Amino acid sequence: MSNNSDRTKWRSETKGVHGGTLRSQFDETSEAIFLNSGFIYSSAEEAESAFGDEINRYLYSRFGNPSISMFEEKLRIIEGAESCKATGSGMSAVFAALASYLNVGDRLVASKALFGSCYIICKEILPKFGIEISFVDGTNLEEWEKALSKPTKAIFLETPSNPSLEIIDISKISQLAKVSNAKVFVDNVFSTPILQKPIDLGADVVIYSATKHIDGQGRCLGGAILSSEEFIEDIVTPFIRHTGPCLSPFNAWVLLKGLETLSLRIKEHSRNALEIANYLQTKKIVSKTIYPSLSSHPQNDIAIKQMNAGGGVVSFEINGNKENVFKFLNKLQIIRISNNLGDAKSLICHPSTTTHQRLSDDEKFEAGITQNLIRLSVGLENINDLIDDLEYALDS
Ligand SMILES: Cc1ncc(COP(=O)(O)O)c(C=O)c1O
């Protein structure tokens, strides 16, 4: 039997429930919401010392706020990172992490299979600031080796990728990155810290859209960047403080409550998703089923090595054309059409005409997004109801 006072030894579920809680003078059970923009100083001298960094206290909610701190600390200890900085959305986390680190003339190597807006940041926005970008097929080690033989400051990858669920070997890429001294940034949205811990696998920076499974009930936007204390305090925090993509205290509170149940929900999402993936494989009209823990997944060996389960998203292709795909989507009754994901409600989308609409046909092809590809974010409904819903729409 061990004494539980060492919080670092708590398991993920316990960290999710108790981690990071700050109690006010009222000793509330559930965390309070500090819905304030500013703070009051007891004297002008105190304000001066606070702005001079001589004392550590809250100054303004763009810089920090107790509700935001509780969210950051809870996520930090679940992830096992040294430090965490929250942001207003997943995209502001991706942009702030990369833009705060990269300078004019630096080179970024990224995998091609990225969420649409992540791809646009790499392809169009960062190059406007003089950053060079090279894309590789994230599943091809030779392409990584070749790309990393040139001086590289950062690597950005998403695994499993949205929506083609490509799996990239984080340990291998992190080893290759050491040769050129590049920092490895991993967008870990589809796995969450419950299924995959990129820092333990050698990555330097982990990025989340907390809008997805961390909230888990489709209520608010949020994001987070986790890394070493040095990276977060010296590089990311000044960027966020002065450019302002901060998280709202109310959203921080919603998200920290989401973290309490993250582990339970992710296990259930993964269980439902695996059953659906197995079901889809039995349907003739489904020409391809993509799910990390299926043995038919091309990178199933890597998924088994670096993930605890397959996650809550299943992608698949059905025979026919766009009209057939739309007809199938329109027939569903429980599973709703939405570009969002990671919700208790099952949500389905056609990436080619929604999240990845802005990509050219060639770019879609490179990212594995065909006209027939469908992304299903499996929710927490009864599995038999979900399968009945799919069965009715597929048979129709
Ligand atoms: C992999 C991935 N990264 C980042 C984002 C962006 O997150 P947000 O919508 O919170 O800005 C998304 C959104 O779907 C995503 O799927």
Can you list the ligands bound to this structure? pyridoxal-5'-phosphate
Task: Please report the total strand number as a whole number.
Answer: 12
**Helix/strand order:** HHHEHEHEHEHEHEEHHEHEHEEHEH
**Given the C-alpha coordinates, what overall shape results?**
globular
Q: Which structural category fits the helices and strands?
A: alpha/beta
Largest sheet: 7 strands, mixed
The total count of helices amounts to: 14
Report how far apart the termini are: 58 Å
Mean pLDDT: 96
CATH class categorisation of the largest domain:
Alpha Beta
How much of the polypeptide forms β-strand, as a percent range? 5-15%
In percent, how helical is the residue content? 25-40%
Strands of the biggest beta sheet: in what spatial order?
Answer: 1-7-6-5-4-2-3
3D structure, described in words:
Helix content is 40%, strand content 14%. With 396 residues, the chain is an alpha/beta fold. Strands 1-7-6-5-4-2-3 form a 7-stranded mixed beta sheet, with helices on both faces. A 5-stranded mixed beta sheet has the order 8-9-12-11-10, covered by helices on one side. Strand 4, helix 7 and strand 5 form a beta-alpha-beta unit. The protein binds pyridoxal-5'-phosphate. Pyridoxal-5'-phosphate binds next to helix 4 and helix 5. The site of pyridoxal-5'-phosphate has 15 residues, from helix 4 and helix 5.
